[in-house]
Structure formats: C-alpha cells, structure tokens
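fyi for ur records
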Amino acid sequence: MAKIIRNANILLVKDVKKSAAYFVEKCGFKDPTFHGENETFCMLLRDCAELMLSQAPEGHTIVPYWKVNDQLWNIYYWVDDVEMLYQEMKNAGAMIDYELCDQPWGCREFGIQDLDGHDIAFGQDMG
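which gave:
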C-alpha cells in the first residue's frame, strides 16, 4: 500500500513576506522559499513539518476557522515536547492564543495566532 510521507499546511495570508518573517522569528520555522513573479507564495520548514503561505488577492477577507466554528484551529501540530516549544515561542514573542493546558482528549497543548488571526495549536499526547 502507498504511504503518505509528508504533508504541508497552507494558510491564506494578507502579506506573505510579513507572515513568513513572523513564522521564522517567532515560531522557529526556517528556510523560507518564495515563489512566483511577485513572491506571493512561500514554503517554510520546521523539523518534518512544512508550512505554505499564499497571499490573498487585494481586498479579500481572510476568515480564520475559529470565526466560522468556535474553537476550531486552522492547523494542529503534534509535538514531542510541548512545554519546551511553548517556552520557546513565548520567549520569541509569538502571539499566544491560549496557554498550556491539559485537554480531555489526552493532550497537553497551547495555541498561537498568526498575523491574520489563524489559530494554530501544538499538542503532545499525554497517554
């Protein structure tokens, strides 16, 4: 059977360059690679996770998922040390959406927001 070996999350953003800088400076992503004539698409990496950013057309309203369905993330990353990652991002100045907490589904997690209000959570399985 064929296997999926990697995935990439994609966020629609108002300004690809500013968003890429936020993810590099505040969230530890690396190697931003811009594409397109006006560099309106970017790919970044953190460990084995890929994040893609696509610039929305001028005047387009970006609607983060939590505005459609309360408490819904745009991205959820599983991590191996959520407390260390939380401290790293907090110290770097990431916009913390909700603090470290234990969830009834067996995860310890926290959330951030990006420059466009997307909610991104990081969780560790505590089972």
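The first strand starts at residue 8 and ends at 13. thats all i got for now
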